[in-house]
Design a protein that fits this description.
The chain has helices at about 1-10, 20-25, 80-85, 140-155, 275-280, 310-315, and strands at about 40-55, 60-70, 90-100, 110, 115-120, 135, 180-190, 205-215, 220-230, 235-240, 290-295, 315-320. By secondary structure, it is of the alpha+beta class.
Length: about 325
């Protein structure tokens, strides 16, 4: 959120600075912090709006996470590099009160009505037990199909399409630099997946733990949840999603269909990735449903505020908790 980022970087002793002026242009009545001589010991890295909630009076409360690097000045470090080695990262949270309205131009209008309030961070939600509890044998049909699929999907070795059910569309990962993939373990929601390939149309859900190795030798542990469908004596990928399932699904057999129309998705099921209204004005990367808290994973530069749904999905990766 731009206003909170500017406020955290401002200083009341430099009220004529461009940063302070930018804060007061967006929020004229907001008081600025007074930074101490040792303020450099805690430097702001980035901010991200992580939750928005509409209040009963029609105003909004936007929670912003701010990531700081904290250096221990009392450690007796003899050089900046030594101080950097002793640095740690902390995340602080601020609630910003906002009144917003639509405008004819479509950009929206908003006013920050008070100085941000520092609040405690979110708690840890209790995760439901995974329904995928049936371990799959390393020499089984599902694991064999998945190993070949992930080679094509993550490293570009082979064509992804040959491992997909008819009607399923999925684009291989590009730019990751992975050179090899190891399927460490897999489990399914039914023991049907552990034996011989069943009749055509039988579907199971599978969670696969893989390790991808990049060109520099880095090892990346990745977890995928997939829907697999039996056809012509082998298992094919019908859908790909991120995150662990929370509801038990049951394997089912069906007559062999002429086509399977499920579309594989890469990381999101349901909801609106569009950015507009309050979210667009405040710099939220995707629409936030009231009451949802987003865990944001940052990789490289921030995408622009007008980013595509695909770019927004690369930044906003999972719904963790109902606050």
């Amino acid at each position: 959120m731009l206003i909170c980022d500017l406020w955290l970087r401002s200083d009341a002793t430099h009220a004529d600075s461009t940063t302070a002026q930018a804060v007061h242009a967006l929020a004229p009545s907001v008081d600025l912090p007074t930074r101490s001589a040792s303020a450099a010991a805690q430097s702001l890295l980035r901010t991200m709006a992580v939750r928005s909630a509409r209040l009963s009076d029609g105003s909004w409360s936007v929670v912003v996470a701010a990531q700081f690097t904290v250096r221990n000045d009392s450690s007796g470090a003899s050089s900046p590099s030594a101080a950097d080695a002793d640095a740690r990262t902390v995340v602080r949270y601020f609630a910003v009160p906002v009144i917003a309205s639509d405008t004819a131009g479509g950009t929206g209008a908003f006013t920050v009505t008070a100085t941000p309030a520092e609040i405690a961070g979110p708690g840890t939600a209790t995760a439901a037990d995974s329904p995928l509890t049936n371990p799959l044998p390393a020499d089984g049909g599902v694991v064999s199909s998945l190993g070949e699929f992930f080679d094509a999907y993550l490293t570009g070795v082979g064509e992804v399409d040959r491992y997909l059910s008819p009607g399923t569309e999925l684009t291989a990962v590009r730019g990751s630099g992975y050179t090899s993939v190891t399927l460490d373990q897999a489990a399914a929601d039914s023991d049907v997946a552990g034996g011989s390939v069943p009749s055509d149309g039988t579907t199971v859900r599978v969670q696969a733990h893989v390790t991808a190795t990049d060109t520099a030798g880095g090892r990346w542990p990745l977890v995928y949840t997939l829907t697999m469908t039996a056809r012509s004596g082998r298992w094919e990928v019908t859908a790909l999603q991120a995150g662990a399932p929370t509801k038990t699904a049951t394997a089912k057999a069906a007559p062999a269909p002429s086509s399977i129309t499920a579309t594989a998705v890469g990381g999101f099921a349901g909801g609106d990735l569009g950015v507009g209204g309050l979210e667009a004005v405040l710099g939220v990367q995707r629409a936030l449903a009231p009451g949802r808290f987003l865990l944001v994973v940052l990789a490289g530069e921030h995408p622009g505020r007008g980013c595509s749904p695909a770019a927004a999905m690369a930044t906003a990766t999972a719904t963790l908790a109902q606050l």
